[in-house]
Amino acid sequence: MPKLIPRLPSTNSHLPFGDMQNSPFYGIDIITVKQFDREQLTYIFEVAHEMYEMVSRVGSFDLLKGKILANLFYQPSTRTSSSFTSAMERLGGSVIPINNVSYSSVTKGESLPDTIRTLEAFADVIVLRHPEVGSSALAAKYARKPIINAGDGVGEHPTQALLDLFTIHEELGRVDGITVTMMGDLKYGRTVHSLARLLSLYNVKLNYVAPENLCLPDEIKAEIGTKGIPQDCFADLTPVLPETDVLYVTRVQKEYFEDPAQHESLKGSYVITTETMRQAKSKMVLMHPFPRVWEIDMAVDADPRAAYFRQMEYGLYIRMALLAMVLGKA
Ligand code: CP
Fold first, then answer.
1. Which of 242, 319, 299, 249 is nearest to 79 (CA)?
2. Residues that bind L-aspartate, according to the entry (predicted)?
3. pLDDT in tens, 85-94
4. Ligand 1: residue whose CA is nearest its atom 6
């Protein structure tokens, strides 16, 4: 009698047993935005568009019927976790939700590799958020199923950057030729680390507005510099606001400060108000990965340039596209 569960292959191919398909994304891990080129991004956006059309027309459909996603979150999440759940369920699949590892065997000391090898016995793809930089890459070394990085500490958040770029593309109709200003916590903000890298594939100008101690890390600036992208740092938004096509605001993350007083001292310094919007271009796109705390006044929400709630919805279509692609169905 054949074995019910084959032994591990000698290489970590991530290909599900007996299910070979031709898609270049089939079975791959999504760990960093560095793995994408412009052609692939265009393809992902085309698939995301198709997902939008299908959701608009029929709500959900059975593309991934029978497939299971494990949502493994070691850090809190509202958008990433729930949009991956929604994406999988709209595609007809189902989800194992581990959104609070304190109720899992992690509290008994289980290692990340063991948790991953456990979940892949039950699921076809694993979405992982973890506080340590490199955790998704580590998980991918042990996994035979695709790992999707949903944020690895202060490292990267590649699916957020894909949805951010898709938002810019949808809102402005182009990415080349624009000026993007990133404001807030650029040092610890994994969303900006990923987005700045993705934008460097295009003909853009990047402005960074942050307190001196929270500016984009030098190694990321150097990496982007090698692509010939003009970059400038500013302590204040005023001089760059009039030229800005996309203003990407981020939260100053309390959880990364050892000294609460240092966090408090920054509070209120970088806030977008209706007055700020009066100084901005009439077609500027205002984005934020959320959650927001005090960085954008709620009065700004009524401004049509405030794209952050649409940005979240674009994330659904991007994540549907990614799940379908890594599972060989797009
Ligand atoms: N943008 C984002 O990652 O939000 P969550 O932390 O709520 O997932």
1. 319
2. 108, 190, 251
3. 999 999 999 9
4. 77
